[in-house]
Amino acid sequence: NMTAVILDGKQVAAEIRAETAKEVADFVAGGAPPPCLTAVLVGEDPASQVYVRNKARACEKAGIDGRTHRLPADAGQDELMALIAELNTDTNVNGILVQLPLPTTDAVRYDEREILDAIDPLKDVDAFSPVNVGLLMQGRPRFLPCTPHGIVQLLGRSNLSVAGKKVCVVGRSDIVGKPMAMMLAQKTGACGPEVANATVTLAHSRTADLASVCRDADCLIAAVGRPEMITADMIKPGAIVIDVGINRVGDKLVGDVAFDQAKEVASAITPVPGGVGPLTIAMLLHNTLAAAKLQSGR
Ligand code: NDP
């Protein structure tokens, strides 16, 4: 029995943020205005407020102009759509991020799809718009979605590759599981050479015998949102385990993987917190700079 290597996402995220800060400084030294990311925060959900504040702080440290537009929970679809339209045409704004989930009140229900569809694809730093999802599927991504991209970076910078291996992604959300699976299925390295050409299984709540499906994988990526549901018996000895889950249990944050037992079986594993989480913001900064560069050329 060997204990797994702990993949330090915080450290890797700090590396990426330092690189981005340097590239931003070079971009600005070349005469461009600082890249600008505008977050749209609707309502007062405490978790969303924390996320938006963290993003703004990270922007500032990277030399990116991080702005936040606040709307009351009951602003309504039309007002939010009008704000998106305004941000789309504002040439000072390079990246637009709508913090999800949008609130639901007795009076107001937002159509999230319509909002995401309205964001200018060149400013869509989350890569949730249909055009950017399509480009990713075709293997010619403009922006990579931040959480899966963070996982690619974490693997690559830890000298781990899953190219050609069996990878099981558990969870098929549009923000994590599905794009992750698509990136792993690519024939070229356009979404990251360390994840290309994997043999991908995309598991979900209707997967029969999830345990054996997981146990077959050389790399297991859990993005479910169920505290510690992946137990040691579901992990192939020597597998790489990536835990995307962030679940609040009492006053503690835990992942989707039962970390203490899993680390005795896996060869490498991400902790929660300090694993995938910090990388998501790092890749958002990366995408904001990429967006500013794309727009400076148009
Ligand atoms: P969603 O709730 O959108 O999707 C969850 C997925 O898990 C669904 O596809 C669902 O299946 C599947 N699932 C649910 N229960 C089971 C089960 N018992 N067995 C197998 N599959 C199951 O989640 P997200 O992708 O948005 O987030 C997943 C987790 O990752 C959350 O804990 C979230 O907080 C965290 N997260 C972390 C980020 C980070 O930066 N580290 C970023 C984004 C999310 P079905 O489709 O059949 O319903």
UniProtKB/TrEMBL annotation:
GO terms for biological process: L-histidine biosynthetic process; methionine biosynthetic process; purine nucleotide biosynthetic process; tetrahydrofolate interconversion. Residues 145-295 form the Tetrahydrofolate dehydrogenase/cyclohydrolase NAD(P)-binding domain. Its EC number is 1.5.1.5, 3.5.4.9. One of its GO terms (cellular component) is cytosol. NADP(+) binds at residues 171-173, 246. InterPro entries: Aminoacid_DH-like_N_sf, NAD(P)-bd_dom_sf, THF_DH/CycHdrlase, THF_DH/CycHdrlase_cat_dom, THF_DH/CycHdrlase_CS, THF_DH/CycHdrlase_NAD-bd_dom. It catalyses: (6R)-5,10-methenyltetrahydrofolate + H2O = (6R)-10-formyltetrahydrofolate + H(+); (6R)-5,10-methylene-5,6,7,8-tetrahydrofolate + NADP(+) = (6R)-5,10-methenyltetrahydrofolate + NADPH. Residues 7-126 form the Tetrahydrofolate dehydrogenase/cyclohydrolase catalytic domain. CDD domains: NAD_bind_m-THF_DH_Cyclohyd. Pathway: One-carbon metabolism; tetrahydrofolate interconversion. It comes from the Bacteria. The keyword Membrane does not apply. PROSITE patterns: THF_DHG_CYH_1 (PS00766). Keywords: Amino-acid biosynthesis, Histidine biosynthesis, Hydrolase, Methionine biosynthesis, Multifunctional enzyme, NADP, One-carbon metabolism, Oxidoreductase, Purine biosynthesis. Signal peptide: none annotated. GO terms for molecular function: methenyltetrahydrofolate cyclohydrolase activity; methylenetetrahydrofolate dehydrogenase (NADP+) activity. Belongs to the tetrahydrofolate dehydrogenase/cyclohydrolase family. HAMAP family: THF_DHG_CYH. Homodimer. Catalyzes the oxidation of 5,10-methylenetetrahydrofolate to 5,10-methenyltetrahydrofolate and then the hydrolysis of 5,10-methenyltetrahydrofolate to 10-formyltetrahydrofolate. This is Bifunctional protein FolD. It comes from Stieleria maiorica. The lineage of its organism: Bacteria, Pseudomonadati, Planctomycetota, Planctomycetia, Pirellulales.
